[in-house]
Amino acid sequence: MTEQTASESPSPFLTRKQAASYLNVPEAWLARTGRTMVPALKFGGHVRYNVSDLDRWATQQRIA
Q: Of 1, 35, 51, 60, which has the fewest CB atoms closer than 10 Å, so is most exposed?
């Protein structure tokens, strides 16, 4: 069995472009409107989205 290093394992954090694709929304929407609605993290000047936070947020958007 081999151990995975941080660079080999998939990151739970997505860029804005990746998060928009994951949620199937335009990147511009995520940058403008979604920035106040969708949970995000900021590392220095870089905004990142945690996959589990996106899943939780999307589930909360269910309309019935």
A: 1
